[in-house]
What does this fold into?
Amino acid sequence: MSGRKFPNISSDALACLFLLIYALCFHSRYIVAGKLMLPEALPYLAGVSEREAVRWDALQWDSAAQHLPWRHVAKEMLIKGVVPLWNSHQGCGMPLLANPQVGVFYPPNLLLWLAPIEVASTWLVLLHTLIALFSAYYLARALSINVYGSLACALSYAFCAPIVSWQMLPTAFNTMSWFPCILLCLILQLRAPSIPRLLLTSGACTMLILSGHPQMCVYSIVSFCIVSLVLCVFFFRTRVPTTAYRLCSVVVAIMLAISISASQLLPTAELSAYSHRSGTPTWDGYRWFASRGLSHSEFVMFLLPYAWGKPQLGTYIGRESFSDYCPYVGVVALMLALLGVVSIRGRQANDMPTKRMAVSIGLCLLVVGLLMATGSVFNIPLYFAFPGFAQFGTPTRALFVSTLGIAMLCGVGFEWLSVENKKGSAMVSRMSILLSLACLLCIFVLLLLMAFLWTNIYHTSVYDAVVLLVRWNVGTLVASILFASAMSLRWLLGRLSLVVTIFSMALELMVFGVDYNQAISKAEYKRLTSTLNLLKELVPETADGLYRILPLSSSWGLRKLPKALLPPNTLSLCGLFDPQAYDSLMLRNYKALMEVIEGAHPCPLENGNMVLLRNALSKGLLPLVSVRYILLMQSQQPLQIKSTCKVRGYVGKILLCELRSTNQRAFVPKQIITCDSGERALQLLKRLKDTDCAVVTCIGSIPKLPAQGLLTCISMRDEGVLLELLAVGTGGCALVLNDVFYPGWRCWLTVANGVCKELQIFPAQYALRCVFIPEFAQYYTACAILFAYVPTSYLVGSFVSLISCSLVVGLMCYAFIRAFSIRLKAS
It folds into this structure.
């Protein structure tokens, strides 16, 4: 079972050239037409677009409110030479680097830091498309599949629905792109273990971990381990020596990848413990998780991607998000995959071991992916044993594992078709014709069944419903007809039938993918940034961090365009501060504080990652988070605006109002209420009437303060990980900072005479910060209060990563010196 050398370099080069051209054509509207891989609805949500009929998908929220703002803030901090550990623009401050979806340590994200983010995002999508294409291609080649089959494998994986529909969410797309690469490195490592191949496997696993989507990463690692065991069984049955040694080398590669990624993993683990996703898994939670798995009725989307409606047109009636539930890989790929399974019976003896290995791996991935995606009992060990798995998204996100299995079987089937085509095998001809006709019949039956369903929804005739479904799935139907024609006329077309088959597959996937993801033009994005900059000029004190600004939104939309203004975090694009937040690892204490301010649960029913303050204006508690300005559309003015705010001005169609009274971001409370637990603090906070008071959680005794302490904050400098307050006074008072309380923050007081003292930080208002300033002068004296974020998890993780990288460099040097000495002796 030694590694197979690729004999025909020119054919591989031509195949790679074809894949490159296809990927460029697929993304040509972004590269040539000047479009940006950003949500089409973003200008509308920012109030700068006149279009009402904007196509909508829930993933646009993730792109607009998470990835674009996060990366903008991280880039601004890196330009200043500051490690982006903390994001003070989101909510009342949130950990930034600790969230793996920011991808600070992910090497390809260097493009984001060097080029404009809106442009670099497009090139990153193209880069990861090529990674998925070439990895899947060479994975098939490593399993002795010929060029035709490898092309089919690469196309059917890199452009299937579970991959293409997630391109707007870069971290999920990036992680799935690396999945075939780690399997390729695994096969090479198990066949002939060596230090270079161990480092290659470790590097691929590191890229997978750092790419940023934990759920996709877990599914990839689980599949990786299962495939490792399958390969070891193959090696053991064929009496390949040192199977245990080969498996140990893979374990070492994974451990090395984890240690290299420690600078990301340790802060993420710390944040997860404080996030709203933490908690003990329960059987009720598992039953709800399993109920979200792929159901029998949704398997129809394997053949008809838009059987349950087209999300681009707002007609999708399926469950949750289309991206989570569509397993479409193309009809042609499915038919070829079936041929790949049955082809084992027709193989020659000398060709059986490698092809059986390819089919076994493909079937293994297909079965494992479906077991996880359907919410079967296979998920129980992961749900209860893996930390944080209970709070992941739908189990259907494991569908990309199945699609790679189908792609590999498709490659085997197309290779068998091309080989038997030369021989003129009658059995293959009959089987391919039978499969293609059965496929057409199946599609026809499914069209009729879904048409009867749609007649009940839209109250139309069956004929109109069939026409509607045909229009939505035209690419699939045309490709199916082309494939059936090519198979039926193989005796006449000969080798040309293979060209028609690969063309029908490419056409089918191109029609689906190009139509799915929408984009905005550079001019629209420029209008968006101009509007945000006008806001920044209109309210300069919010840009200094003394106050925050709140855009009011009336709704959140899963399937329909929401009535929202500037999704949470969007204001950070211009350096403003928004108390709302959209974070996959949001701090649970902050969410509880927002619930008190809102007077109801602040999260939309369908999305627990988002905090929207829609009714907080009537509760009068916005000063708790230093909100001074309100943004809303001119056509939507709540009744409370007139009584609590005054109109400050307009920015296009956006109305800017100013609250009549509020707290600065750092203020001295009139009264301090102490308690000894967070639960008690939350109860007191719900009964709080005066926003100038502070509820401080303090276990033990607090410092004794004079009856009348004085301190006035005059300026603030916020650099994310460093927050400097300049104040004058005598001290002897409590200072509340309306920023999130989180481990790793430290505080120092420096007086004008040079005295410096570290102060203890206490939780205030359940989720914010409070320090007790000792009396340092009898008369008004200037002082500086410095808050610094120094997380131990990041320091320890960076140290481990540095040691691991040094080990990698040492192993590379050793391998190079050893190879050089062997060549020197041979010469």
In short: The chain has a mean pLDDT of 84. The longest strand covers residues 722-731. The first helix runs from residue 9 to 26.
